[in-house]
Specification:
alpha+beta; three-stranded antiparallel sheet; 3 helices; 20% helix
Length: 199
């Protein structure tokens, strides 16, 4: 009897120790909280937002590459500066309905910029009618003026196109475009703003 009681106590102690370990590893587990003492300080800046960085992009106005700061805003700040449709597309990776965007059949001469931060993205000379219902371009103004990353959402493999200055979702790029690039940069009109320029 004595050995059985000792074993039972031992198992209870081990179970309690394991529970404490799990609770410490997963804050909030079963309603518990992890409290850090002064002996375990949080690294400086751990809760702060990422700092703005300098990037090199091409400026149509200057006719050369320039250095610019990345744009960082909170969700609330973006909601104030963008329309609901722009916010949904640029910040939540939404997509406008085909043939509904104002730049699908747009043929003026000029530059298409990011609607969120005004970075130069595409020239009208690179725009073509892809028949897809979204404004399409064969190439950006400069490789540095867009960024891409894999997008495996909706059970498909695509390449997402983003603004490198503000991180806004612009659309996707596909390998079914015309020569010479063979690319189709399929953009959302709501993610763009057009500025007319002289020919």
């Amino acid at each position: 009897m004595r050995s059985r009681t000792t074993r039972r106590k031992f198992l209870r102690m081990m179970g309690a120790a394991a529970g404490l370990a799990v609770g410490a590893a997963i804050p909030g587990f079963l309603g518990g909280r992890l409290v850090l003492s002064d002996s375990f300080p949080v690294p400086a800046g751990a809760a702060e937002q990422p700092a703005s960085a300098q990037i090199k992009v091409y400026s149509v106005e200057k006719g050369t590459y320039v250095m610019t700061q990345t744009v960082l805003k909170t969700k609330e700040e973006w909601k104030k500066s963008l329309t609901p449709e722009q916010y949904h597309i640029l910040r939540e990776k939404g997509t406008e309905r085909a043939f509904s965007g104002k730049y699908d059949k747009h043929h003026e001469h000029g530059v298409y910029r990011c609607a969120a931060c005004s970075l130069d993205l595409y020239r009208s000379e690179e725009k073509y009618d892809s028949g897809t219902g979204w404004p399409s371009f064969t190439a950006p103004i400069a490789p540095e003026n867009v960024s891409t990353r894999p997008d495996n959402s909706f059970f498909s493999q695509r390449t997402e196109v983003l603004c490198p200055r503000c991180g806004g979702h612009l659309g996707h790029v596909f390998d079914d475009g015309p020569k010479p690039t063979g690319k189709r940069y399929c953009m959302n009109s709501a993610a763009l703003q057009f500025v007319a320029t002289a020919k």
